Amino acid sequence: ELFDAAAGDREAALAALKAELQADRGSPLAVHATQAVFGEGPLDPPLLFVGEQPGDEEDLKGRPFVGPAGRLFDGALEKAGITRGECYLTNAVKHFKFTPTGKRRIHQSPDAGDIAHYRPFLRREIEIVAPRLVVTLGATALRAMMGRAIPVTKARGEMMRTPEGLPVFPTVHPSYLLRLPDPDSREREYGRFVEDLKRAHREVM
Ligand code: URA
User: Suppose 131 and one of 34, 48, 56, 87 were both cysteines; which one would form an S-S bond, judging by CB atoms 3.0 to 4.6 Å apart?
Assistant: First the structure.
């Protein structure tokens, strides 16, 4: 055990990790982002969700999943019968990566180097929070957890283990659903996403 089981010590360890991340200038993303966005939620949660990176709104507010993808995700959680109190939400990459174009900031996907840079932070965060199950949302999160690129289409909906033996359940990213142009496929994929969330939830209940 790296940490005293007492929750106070772990809250302090989490706060120290958050401060360390906020001061970190080791990634080029830290230069342009407003701030680092750390995870939120209870210790010892049934589920810990790993997203990709903060978006525009998350970058400004300093909180994960408060933008359009977060709102869609909130609705899907509710539909799956999962309460916020059961979830810790965080991201694989902790700074917003974007291209400035006039007044809009266009999301850029993190690359392997970005993922590798934040991986030790994510690992320590998960170690302190100690969830029963890690659910990865999309390819970046799955890569960050597994240490290699795995197609989400193949892995989704099945329990896996990280090289360190941590249980992981992969599914798609909510932004993928927002990007689907056709309403029918969006509805179908949303339904599949909710089913994945239910299955992950059943694994830990
Ligand atoms: N998308 C993510 O992956 N994470 C967030 O926090 C918001 C949007």
Answer: 48
Query: Which domains can be identified in the chain, with CATH numbers?
Result: 7-204 (3.40.470.10)
Q: Tokens in use for 186? A: 């969006």
In the numeric block, the tokens 């197609």 are attached to 151
Q: Tokens 């977060």 belong to which residue?
A: 70
Determine if ligand 1 sits within 6 Å of the CB of residue 70.
yes
| Residues forming beta bridges with residue 28, ordered by sequence position | none
Q: Give pLDDT tens digits for 6-42.
A: 778 999 999 999 999 999 999 999 999 999 999 999 9
170 lines ligand 1 (CB under 6 A): no
* Atom in ligand 1 nearest the alpha carbon of residue 175: 1
Q: Please indicate whether residue 53, judged by its CB atom, sits closer than 6 Å to ligand 1.
A: yes
Distances (CA, A) of 61 to 22, 36, 96, 103, 161: 14, 10, 12, 18, 33
**What's the burial of 60, exposed, middle or buried (CB within 10 Å: 0-12/13-18/19+)?**
middle
* Cβ atoms of 166 and 134 closer than 8 Å: yes
Tell me if 59 sits within 8 A of 35, measured CB to CB: yes
Instruction: Compute CA 60 distance to the chain's CA centroid, rounded to the nearest angstrom.
Output: 17
Is the Cβ atom of 96 under 6 angstroms away from ligand 1? no
